[in-house]
Design a protein that fits this description.
Layout: E1 13-16, E2 49-52, E3 58-63, H1 66-75, E4 81-83, E5 90-95, E6 104-107, E7 113-118, E8 123-125, E9 139-142, E10 147-148, H2 151-160, E11 164-167, E12 177-180, E13 192-195, E14 200-203, E15 208-211, H3 212-216, E16 222-226, E17 229-233, H4 237-243, H5 252-275, H6 280-292, E18 304-308, H7 315-325, E19 329-332, H8 337-343, E20 348-351, H9 363-371, E21 378-384, E22 392-398, E23 403-407, H10 413-416, E24 419-423, H11 430-433, H12 443-462, H13 465-477, H14 500-508, H15 513-527, H16 531-567, E25 575-576, H17 577-587, H18 595-604, E26 608-614, E27 617-622, H19 624-634, H20 650-656
Helix pairs in contact: 5-6, 5-12, 6-15, 15-16, 16-17, 16-19
């Protein structure tokens, strides 16, 4: 179900509708428990969605009589209009930003209801939804902007036509709501709704909310800033009490994460889309990875992000942005082993121009990076004690931390296995290429970091290494399918029931081993944002694993070919491709290794200096020097096979890449 352009407004809100009905599914949808248009959750696996009236000044005229509709359409200003799936009558959309739009029932002279004005506390079924009974779609009939039309002018027009109107007090869901002036801001027009059925209040002006008791309390109130507004309370227990009527899960902290984390996730996506031209799924992956940097220590592993990108692709800008948004983020253009083990323990490290890790002199750095994606692997160093001759103390450094890296050429195989690889393309879109970096002055970035720091402790209390790993292991031992139930003794007293839905999806994906280690943290974070997102991430993971397997097959054979060429006698003469094919066949007898494959591989590796076609086949001149350089990049070589390899310095290899 696509949201029309006219409703794609961040001031408007949407709600979930129970399938087969026109009733909202979630409690408090009228005030704070609702959704923005770009959040897919409220439409996922549903026939219909609701548009919340009142918020953003939005109100809707909902006709019940064809004759009245025909009469009023002539007199009302032209605006965005939708044909309903029931009687086929219209919804006319207006805004009134002068005051909170209210809800009215409009009757004719015979006191028969002929239309409704859906304002505060009401919702209407959205466009492209299916009607609960007829199954017909709600269709746009006038796709023009929503017009500002004050309700007072509308009511005066209706009065002049001898219609009567009655103010609705209810919310349409049995909630006994009334409006009053808010005590938390200078409120001239009543903008605070009092909900009698659950004893709560919400102000549509300053977004204050809480229990009614807080309104009558004479002492000093406590307050807590949330994405829904300002929660006013008397005792700390009120926070939990307030959440209980509205949650489906027993875990209150998890529900707070569902609210706050989703909002933060969406804001990160907005920032990324403002500065960077990426594939759509990459925005979600990067946003969730950034969120995870704030509590990566509560996972036993955390994947590296690796960006393979050509010059001009915006990889440096993206890395800077990730560093700005992440936990204690920092960006470097090179890194040494001493810098790594002294800074990694409590920061997010972004490394640009990450080209060269081969060679014996980089062995320690390679080992540290290979170990740094997993908790518990550290490095010890002997530190000389000042003032005491030949006295040393042993200090241990933790290298476990989130790391994002980018380069042009590629990643070595071992480090690549610890990374989630994203390919960046060069953008020609002036919307991105003409922007400059103003990250320091961007209030959205500062707000995101502030929000993530605020909820960091709450996140850590839910996401702990023991909870996730032990719960997963217990789940795998007690996995239930349609045929068999396995029971084991729960000696660790770990309850995995709260994670069952997540674990079911992960288990059925058949992702395992190192790939499960890498993606499990992202699966868990995404599941705390939305059900839709966990499904998306499982699909991303499966596709990534599939691509990596194919790349491994290709890359391994490319290495065989490079090894073969490096072992050949160097010559400036033409060599028959068939001859190279025959020699590779002696090493790898795969059926697909033929002259055509060898020709493509030589072009892919950029080793052909010159090519010619003769009657007996194709001949090529090989760039042997380049082959020697490439084999160093493809894999770590501590001792070169040929003496000629020694002449290539690290700088030459870096230049080649």
């Amino acid at each position: 179900m696509e949201i029309p352009k006219q409703l794609q407004n961040e001031n408007f809100r949407f709600c979930k509708i129970k399938n087969g009905t026109k009733a909202p599914e979630e409690k408090c949808w009228q005030s704070w428990n609702n959704h923005l248009y770009y959040n897919e959750d409220f439409k996922q696996d549903r026939d219909a969605y609701g548009i919340v009236c009142g918020i953003g000044g939005l109100y809707v005229i909902d006709f019940d009589e064809q004759q009245i509709q025909d009469e009023l359409l002539i007199k009302l200003p032209k605006t965005f209009a939708v044909k309903t799936g029931g009687k086929g009558l219209y919804h006319l959309y207006f805004t009134d930003n002068s005051k909170l739009p209210l809800s009215y029932q409009i009757n004719n002279k015979e006191n028969k209801r002929v239309l409704d004005i859906q304002g505060n506390g009401k919702q209407v079924i959205g466009t492209n939804s299916k009607h609960a009974e007829t199954k017909r779609l709600y269709e746009v009939v006038n796709d023009i902007p929503i017009i500002e039309f004050p309700q007072q002018e509308l009511l005066k027009l209706l009065e002049d036509l001898d219609f009567k109107y009655n103010l609705y007090g209810g919310s349409g869901t049995g909630t006994n709501a009334r409006l009053t002036q808010c005590k938390f801001h200078d409120d001239h027009d009543p903008s605070m709704a009092i909900y009698q059925d659950n004893g709560t209040f919400y102000c549509f002006g300053c977004r204050a909310y809480g229990f009614i008791e807080a309104l009558n309390y004479k002492g000093k109130l406590n307050k807590k800033e949330t994405k829904n507004g300002t929660f006013y309370y008397i005792e700390k227990e009120d926070i939990e009490k307030f959440m209980k009527p509205f949650t489906k899960e027993e875990n209150i902290i998890k529900e707070n994460i569902d609210i706050d984390l989703k909002d933060i996730y969406e804001n990160i996506i907005k920032v990324l889309k403002f500065y960077c031209d990426l594939k759509e799924e990459n925005y979600s992956l990067i946003a969730v990875w950034i969120i995870g940097t704030y509590f990566y220590k509560n996972f036993s592993t955390y994947p590296y992000l690796y960006f393979n990108a050509p010059k001009g692709s915006g990889k440096t800008r993206l890395l800077k942005l990730i560093a700005k948004l992440s936990y204690n983020g920092d960006i470097l253009v090179s890194i040494s082993e001493s810098v790594l083990f002294r800074t990694a323990g409590d920061s997010t490290i972004c490394i640009d121009e990450f080209e060269s890790l081969h060679g014996k002199e980089k062995q320690v750095l390679r080992e540290l990076l290979n170990a740094g994606y997993k908790k518990g692997l550290g490095v010890k160093r002997a530190i000389k004690v000042k003032g005491i001759k030949e006295k040393y103390e042993i200090e241990r450094y933790d290298v476990y931390s989130p790391k994002a890296m980018a380069n042009i050429w590629g990643m070595d195989e071992v480090l690549g296995d610890r990374s989630i690889t994203l390919i960046l393309d060069k953008s020609n879109n002036p919307l991105f290429t003409r922007k400059v970096e103003d990250f320091e002055e961007n209030d959205s970035i500062l707000n995101i970091k502030q929000q993530l720091n605020q909820i960091q402790c709450s996140l850590c209390s839910v996401v702990t290494e023991k909870k996730i790993n032990s719960a997963w292991n217990m789940y795998t031992n007690t996995y239930v399918d349609n045929k068999t139930t396995l029971y084991t003794n729960n000696t660790n007293n770990i309850n995995y029931i709260n994670y069952t839905n997540i674990f079911d999806k992960i288990y059925k994906s058949e992702i395992e081993g190192r790939n499960l280690e890498l993606f499990l943290p992202l699966f868990f974070i995404s599941s705390n944002i939305s059900d839709y997102l966990i499904d998306l991430f499982i699909n991303i993971a499966k596709e990534s694993i599939k691509e990596r397997k194919q790349e491994d097959i290709t890359e391994n054979r490319d290495i065989l070919l490079l090894d073969l060429i490096c072992d050949m006698e160097e010559t400036i003469e033409f060599i028959k491709v068939a001859e190279i094919t025959k020699k590779l066949k002696e090493i790898d007898e795969s059926d697909f290794i033929n002259s055509k494959y060898i020709g493509r591989a030589l072009r892919r590796l950029n080793l052909i200096i010159e090519k010619r076609r003769l009657g007996k086949g194709i001949e090529v001149k090989i760039d042997f020097k380049k082959a020697h350089k490439k084999i160093l990049i493809f894999r770590t070589i501590e001792k070169p096979k040929q003496e000629s390899l020694k002449e290539y310095t690290e700088e030459e290899v870096k230049d080649e890449s």
